[in-house]
Batch of 2 targets.
Target 1
Amino acid sequence: MKNIFNPTHTAEILQRIDKLSPNSQPEWGKMDVAQMLAHCSAFQDIAMGNAFPTRSWLGVIVGGFAKPMIYNEKTLPHNMSTIPTILIADAREFATEKEKLKQKITTFQQNGPEKCTAHPHPFFGKLTPEQWGKGIYKHLDHHLKQFEV
């Protein structure tokens, strides 16, 4: 399974982000491309320990059982619900969001597993740095596929 802590996998993700344009259209979902980039950036903030959304009651009940979906080989389902604090509905500026996300991905990868948050994921609960690395890659891959890159 690919992992964002692997420099080769990070480079692949960054190259795919560079293929996006302000006119990129989603295959599914409600976010436009700038909102998707902001959403992915907000998810990075959680993994980096810069944001601490509270754990949802549903996550407390079923998150542990569902946790493997974030780091296993299966693709994430389309239109999956998200953490409310990272649901982006307002207008965003494409170039700004693109650069912010690329910088956060690069910083996260360079900081390595040692600097990954120990704070629980708001739905899945406690994740190891390895699980975060796979989950970040899988989340980014999911949204890049959403925009056909």
Target 2
Amino acid sequence: MNWKDVDTTNCGIAACADLFGDRWALLILRDVFAGVTRFGDLQRHTGASTAVLADRLRRLVGAGILRETAYREGRARSRSAYQPTEKGLGLVPVIVALAEYGYAFLMSPEQRIVSYLDARTGERVRTALVRGDGTEVAPGDLAFDVSPGALAPGYTAPTSRGAGRTRD
């Protein structure tokens, strides 16, 4: 199998890039997972404009990643807070992996602002590729099991011209 012959139209990475493909969505998820849940607090903490933050929150709520809840303090008008859904919590390993990659390869050790710990033991955690039996798999030992339908006859990988067309 040659990866260049795989129809990547229905790629999971592309689907995630469509939803989280900018810094704001990832920073919102980072903060919500860390307990920053109110719109105003998210805006101050991420630095996103009101319009950008509202748009990304709408997208994350619409995708079922976050749920919006209303709260009111005293007689003030109702405001929004955001909580991760079960679907959203599935992204915690992704956010931890991105953070750990950033600390390992893009920043110096003194720039680290957070480590991820097991709340029960205080031990540092890390993400890993793991088989069903729990055995760790090295990145170099990863193989791709491509669905038979993804090897469409005559498929041509998308380019800037004629993206997604097949050969006749």
